Amino acid sequence: MSVLEVRNLTIRFGGLTAVDGLNLTVNEWEIVGLMGPNGAGKTTAFNCITGFYKADEGTVVYRGRDVTKLPPHRKAALGIGRTFQNVGMVKSETVLENLLTAQHIKAGYGALTALTGVGAVRQRERDLHAHADAILELLGLTEVRNRPLGSLSYGTLKLLELGCALATDPDLLLLDEPSSGMGPEEAHELGDRLLALRKELGVTMLLIEHHVPLVAAVCDYVYVLNFGKLLAEGDPDHVRSHPEVVAAYLGGEAPEALAETEVPAEQAEVAVATPAAAPTRSGGRGRRRKESA
Amino acid sequence: MSADTQLLTGYDAGAARARFGGWLARAAASLPVLWLVLLLPRHADDWTNNAIFAAIYAMVGLSMNVLVGYTGQISLGQQAFLGIGALTAANVVHTGTNAPDPFTFALGIVAAVAISAGAALLLGGIALRIRGLYLALVTLVFGAVTADAIFTIPALNGNDAGVSAYRPSALQSNYSYYLFALAMVGICLYVDVWIRRSKVGRGLIALRDNELVASAYGINVLGYKLLGFVLSGAMAGLAGGVFAFWSQEFSDKDFTAAAGFNKALIFVVMVVVGGLGNRAGVVAAAAFFALIDPLLAGLAHHTGWLNYYTDHKAYISNIIGAGLLLQTVIFNPGGLGQVLRPFTRWFAGHRFSLHDDHGDAAAAALVGAGDVRA
Amino acid sequence: MHELAGSFSTQINLLTPIVSGIANGAAYGLLGLGLVLLYKSNRIFNFAQGEFATVAAIVAYVFDRGTGWVPKVPYFAAIAIGVATAVLVAIATERFVIRPLFHRPRVVLVVATVGVALFLMGIEGILPYPQTASLRTISDVLNVRSYAFKVDGVVALDQDLAKLGALTVLAVAAFVFFRYTATGTAILAVSQDATAARVVGISVERISMTTWAIAGLLGGVAGVLLAVPPAGSVTPGSITGLTLTVAFSAAVLGGMTSLPGAFLGGILIGLIEAFANADHSFVPGLNSLPTAQAEVAVAVVLLLILLVRPRGLLGQEA
Question: Is C185 exposed, middle or buried (0-12, 13-18, 19+ CB in 10 A)?
């Protein structure tokens, strides 16, 4: 069964339909990209999948279980982790405290027991500290363990946010523009890191991304949204040269845009937005793996 | 990679702890503090009385700290919980002119905590729907209405004459009652330490800062908000129980109209001047506000201004309190806690340093004095 | 026939609470106007509004009586000086407390106004004047017998009429001010986006000062009208302690961003209070406590309105 299955998701704000009948599937160990121009509805869809917005129509199914109506903290407890577009963390705390907070679900003791300070609580706190240190080491952030967030650079904060999302022990990780604010080198490193995370921790990921080389390097499958509707889906290389996708990003009509690209129309084999025409997916092992095999 | 962070100062909050010699020095340094807290009250009986009052205020301060400092809610009616605690304790014990036995006394205190926590739960439920400034107003109204409507019910306030609340025989003397009050403060401090050290405090602070992120971390925001109110109400209720047996009576006059409103304001001033989220600062500020009246009275006595002082003492402490509040809010958002932080951290075993990024950042974030640079 | 007679006496019974409700409501509305103004412009609750009122009352009283080195001046001059003092106090608050905290979270500013209120109470308290005295009413001054309108045995005092009249005039004036004048529009602009307002040439500092000056004016007028017998006095904190909570409730009820709302809210709360006090008690057991009854009624209504419609009856934002 798939890890995440979104069927006919529709979200309206008053008269505006932000997301219109979105169908999206993420299979085990896949890294799936969600692209589209600004305002296409990507973050809105994310917010709905994670429980911050209510869906007007449609369902979100996680590992076979309908989670459409669950509140965010319940989804987090089930294993759906996420990052935020503008670095969402507890700004008044230190790095370590953020990592400890993120492990809330796995704390292993009840709230009222916590206040008694019994040995079990102390032991669990030690465990949580150890796990936090492990994450810091995994991401190379051990140096900043006790710093308040205000003294960190943007790149470090983004990395830390990833670490906090990992600390929630997620099964499915939703990343909202993880490479925003990064230059090409940093984005490349991020790509390596994401692949390593998948390999070492077995996390399935769904990314909102604008950075095309990153998507190409990392994603097994891509969905493109425009004005809330699914525009195209498929292999990253093919999707990026789809005339309508190019037109959506650059403006202008599709044939015009196609004329700008180097790929002749016959070779632009891409799925249009119908499930029947979707190409077979390359399985969850990622494109990189396939090439190296 | 991006781990090339900018080091602002050389101070690292996680640096090695003190060694044996260091601990010895700290033990020696804490002796004057211990003397002040434990032994001074023994020598002067009216000081003991004031010291108990300071202990009561310290507990209220800690309760405000949990609600305003950690959970980020606002309470302009905290005196209601103090009063509910006192009312409950006095009425449960209700032994008229006899001293109660220890069991009944304990029951009274526990009931005070429980009922006050329950009332706080009610207020918390309201706080889930109403936020920010409107909530401030609702707590103000809640405080006033509770005092005026509930504390004045004849069945509960001894038909307007007050309900007597005598201490059990073991705690008759002022000094022994003071030790009891200190023990209660100790319980509140212990719970506060464990709030901060566990997922409870982290959950409260996370939801204060950013509810969305908190729920993404799996924190049940609604549940924890209520928990914040309940913990705050419990502590204030405990303070109320101690208060009832300190004055040895429950009288609604202490909590209604002007007296109640004054307390509400002082409690807010206390926690802001102490420094939101800072335990030591809040306790110090609370003690200060509790003792300011006897201190100034003593000063007035010696300098011959006593009559003037006695006539105007409420207003004088208003001016001082207000002045400190404005000074803290405008110039020194970290409050007394920020001033004390180098010392409290030293006592906890760290190196003495006047710079503390973490504390300053936390307090500044709490009052929004600047943006965290991202 | 019996029924007709019954309903007629009910009508008379209704008049008393209606009249006293409107009279008190006018007082709350007067304070509420200043509160709504500052909320509209600064997005804060000004807990010192009641003290602006008391300051005006005290100064007016002192100049009216002529105590110490303060000369005795004609009544209306004393009133004017009182209101002017309130305006000055408000301007000082803006300059020394509000402006340094302009960009902080609103809660911080509210706490600061609490500090200002406490501070003013303290200063008032140490000044040498009889604290339990009251200001003279207009009818005292004009040396006419207190006009009392008698409607089927119900009495309306002229001071109450003055309050209602002042409230109406001020509310209309404020409404017109915000809708139709340049300064009023500028105030709203600054409240929505100070930086953008600056960019189009509005002096944020001057607008801020003007706003608070007007708030001081509104508070001052409220003070000199309220500090009269039977219930009012020039005691420090009296207007704050007795009226502020209710004034806030009135403003919230009407909607904190709506000036007509403050008017409406004030009258409404006054009526609710009056009816809760009347013999139609709906909370059994609290009969002996008229204040408590009324307060509980007001609190319950306030809470219900906030829970169901967070922006109040006429307000535009939650």
Answer: middle
Check if B368 contacts A (Cβ < 8 Å): no
pLDDT tens per residue, range A72-123: 999 999 999 999 988 888 888 899 999 999 999 988 888 888 888 888 899 9
In this prediction, residue C45 carries a pLDDT of: 87
Whether residues B326 and C116 touch (CB distance < 8 A) is answered with: yes
What integer is the mean pLDDT of B184-198?
94
Chains that touch C (3 or more CB pairs under 8 A): B
Which residues of chain C does B320 touch, with a Cβ-Cβ cutoff of 8 Å? 122
Name the pLDDT band for B74 (thresholds 50, 70, 90): confident
Chains A and C: 3 or more CB pairs within 8 Å of each other: no
**Average pLDDT of the segment spanning C220-230:** 81
Q: Which residues contact C81 (CB under 8 A, 6 or more apart)?
A: C59, C60, C63, C73
The interface residues of chain C toward chain B in range 106-145, judged by CB-CB distance below 8 A, are 106-108, 110-112, 114-119, 121-126
Chain B residues with beta carbon closer than 8 angstroms to that of A89: 210, 213
Residue found under tokens 């100070």: C194
| Helix, strand, coil % over all residues of chain B, rounded to 5 | 75, 0, 25
Among all residues of chain B, which has the CA nearest to that of C310? B130
CATH architecture of C2-308: Orthogonal Bundle (1.10)
Verify whether the Cβ–Cβ distance C122 to B322 is below 8 Å: yes
CB neighbours of A269 closer than 8 A, spacing ≥ 6? A238, A279
The conformation of residue A33, written as its DSSP 8-state character, comes to: E
Q: Where are the domains of chain B?
A: 42-367
Alpha carbon of A112: minimum distance to chain B alpha carbons (Å) = 8
- Indicate the domain borders of chain C: 2-308
- Give pairs for B196-200: CB < 8 Å, separation 24+: B196/B70, B196/B279, B197/A117, B197/A125, B198/A107, B198/A109, B198/A114, B198/A115, B198/A121, B198/A125, B199/A100, B199/A101, B199/A104, B199/A107, B199/A109, B199/A111, B199/A114, B200/A111, B200/A114, B200/A115, B200/B224, B200/B227
Query: What pTM value is reported for the model?
Result: 0.84
Interface contact flag, B1 A155, Cβ < 8 Å? yes
CA B173 to chain centre: 25
> In sequence order, which residues have a C-beta less than 8 Å from that of residue C120 and are 6 or more positions away?
C48, C51, C52, C54, C55, C89, C236
The model's confidence at residue A284, banded by pLDDT at 50, 70 and 90, is: very low
How is domain A4-79+171-292 classified at the CATH fold level?
Rossmann fold (3.40.50)
CA atoms in the 13 A half-sphere facing the CB of C169: 9
A-chain residues near B1 (CB < 8 A): 140, 155, 159, 186, 189
Give contacts of B 205-234 with A, CB under 8 A: 205-206, 209-210, 212-221, 224, 227, 231
State the CATH class of domain B42-367: mainly alpha
**Mind listing the pLDDT tens digit for each residue in A189-208?**
999 999 999 998 899 999 99
**Cβ neighbours around B155 below 10 Å, total:** 8
Q: Which ipTM did the prediction report?
A: 0.82
Which of B199, B224, B356 is the best residue to mutate to test the A interface, defined by the most A CB atoms within 10 Å of its own CB?
B199
Predicted pLDDT at C49: 92
B327 reaches A (C-beta below 8 A): no
Rounded to whole angstroms, the Cα distance separating B224 from B128 reads 11
CA pseudo-torsion sign B264, B270, B275, B279: negative
Question: Looking at the predicted structure, is the pLDDT value of residue B242 above 90?
Answer: yes
Q: Do residue B3 and residue A141 have CB atoms under 8 angstroms apart?
A: yes
Considering A190-194, B129-133, B339-343, C3-7, the range whose residues carry the highest mean pLDDT is: A190-194
Domain spans of chain A?
A: 4-79+171-292, 92-169
